[in-house]
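anyone seen this seq b4? input:
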Amino acid sequence: MMTFSQPTENTPSAPGTETSTATSSPVLVTASDAAPTPSPPAVDLVPPARTARVQVVRQPETDESGADEDGEGAEEEDPAAGLLDGVAEDAEDIDLIHLRLTNSTLSSLDLPRFANLKRLSLRQNTLSKLPFETFSRLGAGRLEELDLYDNGVGDGELEGLRGLGELETLDLSFNKIRSLTPSSRAHKHKHKHHHHHDHPPRPASPSAASPPPSSDAAAPTSSSDPLPPSDAPAPLTSEPPVQLTLAQQQQVEREDKTAPVPTEAQAQAQAEPLAPLRSLKTLYLVQNKITHITGLSHLGGTLRSLELGGNRIRKIEGLENLVNLEELWLGKNKITRLEGLATLRSLRILSMQSNRVTKLENLSSLKNLRELYLSHNGLERLEGLEGVTELTTLDVGSNKIAKIEGIAHLKKLQEFWANNNRIPTLVDLPSQLAVLPELETVYLEGNPAQTDDRANYRRKVILELPRVRQVDATFVR
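predicted toks r here
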């Protein structure tokens, strides 16, 4: 199995957000990008080959490139040259990381020949798009994991996903994606340009289509000819519409009639490029430039985890169909309200750290919510938690809360993080926290209750909460 590292949107101030990874014994294919004459790398396949993992690692350049002191005499090497020579075509797991691969060099690797490929990592390369002819045939359309973390993939360049109906994990973090539903205007422009670029050249101006001037017409022939007077009127900057000849009009009409009409699947892939991913369970879109949550409506039956941290989102929207979603990560955006969550009844983790939320609200339908992370917002009160009785972790650190209240009914709460708020005293601990039978960890440092009484703060907390095993970062003896 491939070791897949989950990129987190923002390291939470509470534990429990780490992801576990599996380890394997990779087959290492070493490629030096400074070799003057690339040769097939040595491959030590672990039988059976179908379970082998192939990993390509770039090594530091050596001084054996053959170049002279001025850097001349060595030709620039194709980064993909020889990378996968000798690799068994039934390999299931391939990593091509930090190799400066571009779309053209990637196509030269002929990745579709690995018919049993299940997991492909292309992290930290320079891919700008996912061409259909390369990506749609990966693993004969049965690819399960695709990692494109830290490339240059932009809007409208996800066509290659259309053929990956069995993909379960997709990582597009740290790319240049602004929207998952490219504007219809952009596609219309691309479609028009594609079908009419072979039209006959149109005359540049009416005079270009008119008969040539007579021999009596005077025209300047050299620099000695007189220039027009300085007070002559300036020529118009715009020209009247060019009239096509009858033959040109007929040719345009014929091309429009014969132009291929996109199929329903192609039109859908253009409108929502992720729609064909009918098996997708985990989607990472961390640190892009996304402003609106769109293009996810077709993933409601399968999607379990969605990471959109580090974008430019201002509103929670477009999630209505994701009824099976279990994890939603929206940290480090510009969201001002908790909304648009009513249908997410399977949600277990909600992370909204480092946003602009000022009120706890609209959470009553999240009956299965276990972990709620809202640190580094603008919350002023602990409220609106009546319906989330399954909570085990509540993180409201670094807000503006002045009183511990509204949590005495959370009988399954194990960790309560309220550090760096404005809580003046510990008077509410007996009524709100001491009554919670499973509470083990409490963070209250950074409040006036601690900063104004540093000598006695910790002792008071332990006396009020005798079952607690950890106060702030220190375990109770």
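The CA atoms of residues 78 and 105 lie 7 Å apart. The first strand starts at residue 27 and ends at 31. kinda curious what u guys think
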